[in-house]
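User: Please fill in residues for this 202-position structure.
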């Protein structure tokens, strides 16, 4: 096959047109690595290799654009690439490549997820749900949860801001349910309410 046109569509992307009118999207890196130019002749094997290299190069560029928008886990990146239409093999390769580059680090990301949701006032149950939702392996959870600050003060502030009558059972139930939804255990909630009542009595 013969290249009859190289058209630049963005600073890093090109479209190659061949003499059979077929086209191939590729990257600047692929073109420069192979010294491609108008008039280049490719054998069938060379063409297939060019298609594979172009697919991988464009996928890596896509992965870099995605990771630059926000931190994410390896699994989240894999799922995002699949969602964008990449094959499973390409998505696996790109996710591993970003890990090797240090742009994805599930250990530090798990710790940041814990800190983020703890700062929002969530309890351990809800934070574990978030770790799972973000595609982080359970084997990383224990170390990440060590980043979690003590929650007693947060529980006390939450209760103090909402409980106007310690004898109002409906109000206590509403506050307890809200704390449970935020990921606190019933034991933690009961303990915090008892502490609050003790301080009020005092």
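Assistant: Residues filled in for all 202 positions:
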């Amino acid at each position: 096959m013969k290249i009859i046109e190289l058209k630049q569509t963005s600073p890093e992307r090109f479209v190659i047109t061949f003499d059979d009118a077929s086209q191939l999207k590729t990257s600047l890196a692929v073109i420069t690595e192979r010294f491609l130019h108008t008039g280049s002749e490719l054998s069938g094997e060379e063409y297939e290799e060019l298609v594979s290299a172009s697919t991988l190069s464009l996928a890596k560029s896509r992965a870099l654009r995605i990771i630059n928008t926000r931190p994410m886990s390896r699994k989240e990146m894999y799922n995002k690439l699949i969602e964008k239409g990449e094959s499973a093999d390409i998505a696996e390769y790109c996710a591993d490549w970003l890990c090797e580059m240090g742009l994805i680090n599930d250990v530090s990301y798990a710790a940041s997820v814990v800190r983020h949701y703890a700062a929002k006032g969530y309890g351990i149950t809800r934070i574990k749900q978030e770790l799972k939702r973000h595609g982080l392996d359970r084997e990383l959870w224990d170390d990440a949860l060590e980043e979690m600050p003590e929650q007693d003060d947060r529980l006390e502030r939450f209760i103090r801001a909402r409980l106007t009558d310690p004898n109002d059972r409906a109000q206590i139930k509403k506050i307890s349910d809200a704390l449970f939804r935020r990921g606190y255990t019933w034991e933690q909630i009961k303990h915090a309410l008892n502490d609050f009542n003790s301080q009020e009595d005092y």
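For context: The domain at 106-145 is CATH 1.10.10.10 (Arc Repressor Mutant, subunit A).
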